[in-house]
């Protein structure tokens, strides 16, 4: 309990430092929401001019640019009429109350946008983790039992290819192969649900959702199977030579029973230790490209749009939620690791 309380307290300065660093980076970076608006206006004027509209020759107020009053209004709207320190303090004061402010360009509160987009990202990440760890552990178990056989060498070759392929290449390959771009049209090209999703019953909705998410899940998970498989394999091989395994084999216990009831739990401890980083990577970084490629309207795509539009409240809101979830995930898996291996006591580490 003391360790849990200290870890929860440590989250406060961690959140503060992360938000401060990102706030400073944003302040010194070129461009901003006002410049983004001005660029949009300039591009619209140029587009109209190329279509034959000579705005400069018309009595059009936009042809002369924004007036000082309109620029001042934009400064006030985006909060740039306040000193930098005051803007940062106001942001922290709101974040403590989970008031993440309003999006500059979406016309909604940041919290409502995150709450709308987060479920599909969490579902995609959860399915990817399930496939990743199920396949990784099973392949690692197979490689350990049939070490230095033809099956071991063949799986090594396949895992090396999957591990070497970037996520973008793997996703495009799956689209070309299985989404009808070049060969078979087995899975949909983009999107999460079908057009008649609302008229389906609950079972058909679940089936339709899984059908649409099959390719994104495979593209997100297959490249990470190799690491889990090798952690499992070498963890099992290390356990096979330990005295308690040799003693059970001497007593005549079936080897499969020894593996599944005794050895596997100890061998998976390194796999569990890697879980926090894998979970955070899959949920909050790996899904960005997947959502963009497959047209999934999730939190990764929302963050990408926020960065492109310089939507600072949305950027900081997503960062705040991601950081908080990441730290809670790390804490949860630390407690899980202590449960699996009571010899590890994080409260007395160091």
From TrEMBL:
<dbReference type="GO" id="GO:0055085">
    <property type="term" value="P:transmembrane transport"/>
</dbReference>
<feature type="transmembrane region" description="Helical">
    <location>
        <begin position="267"/>
        <end position="294"/>
    </location>
</feature>
<keyword id="KW-0812">Transmembrane</keyword>
<dbReference type="InterPro" id="IPR035906">
    <property type="entry name" value="MetI-like_sf"/>
</dbReference>
<keyword id="KW-1003">Cell membrane</keyword>
<keyword id="KW-0813">Transport</keyword>
<dbReference type="Pfam" id="PF00528">
    <property type="entry name" value="BPD_transp_1"/>
</dbReference>
<feature type="transmembrane region" description="Helical">
    <location>
        <begin position="209"/>
        <end position="232"/>
    </location>
</feature>
<feature type="transmembrane region" description="Helical">
    <location>
        <begin position="314"/>
        <end position="333"/>
    </location>
</feature>
<feature type="transmembrane region" description="Helical">
    <location>
        <begin position="154"/>
        <end position="187"/>
    </location>
</feature>
<keyword id="KW-0472">Membrane</keyword>
<feature type="domain" description="ABC transmembrane type-1">
    <location>
        <begin position="118"/>
        <end position="337"/>
    </location>
</feature>
<dbReference type="GO" id="GO:0042884">
    <property type="term" value="P:microcin transport"/>
</dbReference>
<feature type="transmembrane region" description="Helical">
    <location>
        <begin position="120"/>
        <end position="142"/>
    </location>
</feature>
<feature type="transmembrane region" description="Helical">
    <location>
        <begin position="7"/>
        <end position="29"/>
    </location>
</feature>
<comment type="similarity">
    <text>Belongs to the binding-protein-dependent transport system permease family.</text>
</comment>
<protein>
    <submittedName>
        <fullName>Inner membrane ABC transporter permease protein yejB</fullName>
    </submittedName>
</protein>
<dbReference type="InterPro" id="IPR000515">
    <property type="entry name" value="MetI-like"/>
</dbReference>
<keyword id="KW-1133">Transmembrane helix</keyword>
<dbReference type="GO" id="GO:0005886">
    <property type="term" value="C:plasma membrane"/>
</dbReference>
């Amino acid at each position: 309990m003391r360790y849990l309380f200290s870890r929860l307290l440590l989250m406060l300065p961690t959140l503060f430092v992360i938000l401060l660093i990102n706030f400073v980076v944003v302040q010194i970076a070129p461009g901003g929401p006002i410049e983004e608006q001005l660029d949009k206006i300039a591009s619209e004027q140029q587009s109209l001019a190329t279509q034959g509209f000579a705005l400069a020759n018309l009595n059009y107020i936009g042809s002369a640019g924004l007036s000082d009053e309109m620029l001042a209004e934009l400064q006030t709207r985006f909060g740039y009429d306040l000193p930098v320190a005051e803007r940062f303090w106001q942001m922290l004061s709101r974040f403590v109350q989970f008031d993440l402010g309003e999006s500059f360009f979406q016309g909604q509160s940041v919290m409502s946008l995150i709450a709308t987009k987060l479920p599909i990202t969490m579902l995609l990440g959860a399915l990817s983790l399930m496939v990743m760890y199920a396949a990784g552990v099973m392949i690692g178990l197979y490689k350990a039992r049939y070490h230095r056989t033809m099956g071991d060498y063949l799986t090594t070759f396949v895992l090396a290819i999957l591990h070497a392929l970037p996520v973008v290449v793997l996703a495009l390959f799956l689209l070309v192969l299985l989404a009808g771009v070049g060969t078979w049209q087995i899975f949909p090209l983009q999107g999460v649900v079908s057009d008649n999703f609302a008229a389906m019953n609950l079972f058909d909705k679940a089936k339709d959702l899984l059908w649409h998410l099959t390719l994104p899940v495979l593209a997100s998970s297959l490249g990470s199977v190799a690491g889990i498989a090798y952690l499992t394999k070498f963890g099992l091989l290390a356990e096979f030579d330990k005295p308690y395994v040799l003693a059970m084999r001497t007593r005549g216990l079936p080897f499969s029973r020894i593996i599944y009831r005794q050895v596997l739990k100890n061998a998976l401890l390194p796999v569990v230790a890697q879980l926090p980083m894998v979970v955070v990577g899959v949920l909050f970084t790996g899904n960005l490209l997947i959502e963009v490629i497959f047209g999934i309207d999730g939190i990764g795509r929302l963050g990408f749009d926020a960065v492109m539009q310089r939507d600072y409240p949305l950027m900081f809101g997503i960062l705040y939620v991601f950081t908080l979830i990441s730290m809670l995930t790390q804490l949860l898996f630390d407690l899980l690791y202590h449960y699996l291996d009571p010899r590890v006591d994080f409260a007395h580490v160091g």
